[in-house]
Write a structure and sequence with these properties.
Blueprint lengths: L11 H8 L8 E7 L6 H10 L5 H14 L1 E8 H17 L5 E6 L1
Length: 107
């Protein structure tokens, strides 16, 4: 079969040049839980264990940071995963009638 112009014309040098290009890692985002006067500490710990897959001890430590410092970092993720986690938290909090605020900021 004859070669068409532009097909299969990569030289060894072209291939080496293409393989040397470095891909940048995507930026990471911190998912932050904010304290409020209505959401229970037990619910915050439940969120950390179920949505963020934290151990009970780690979830409790983060929950105490939220309670005492006003906010706590639930995890660090790529943008799409952070956005999905925030949506899950918001939906669960809304279903339980808690005003738990969950945001993200670039790391």
């Amino acid at each position: 079969m004859p070669r068409w112009q532009g097909q299969g014309t990569d030289t060894q040098e072209d291939v080496q040049h293409k393989s040397k290009q470095k891909l940048e890692k995507p930026p990471k985002y911190k998912v932050i839980l904010h304290n409020d006067d209505f959401t229970t500490m037990e619910f915050v710990q439940l969120v950390l264990e179920t949505i963020f897959h934290k151990s009970p001890a780690t979830a409790r430590a983060i929950m105490m940071a939220v309670h005492l410092k006003g906010r706590g970092i639930a995890g660090v993720y790529t943008y799409e995963i952070a956005e999905a986690k925030i949506t899950k938290v918001s939906n669960l909090a809304k279903a339980q009638e808690f005003p738990l605020l969950c945001t993200m900021e670039e790391e």
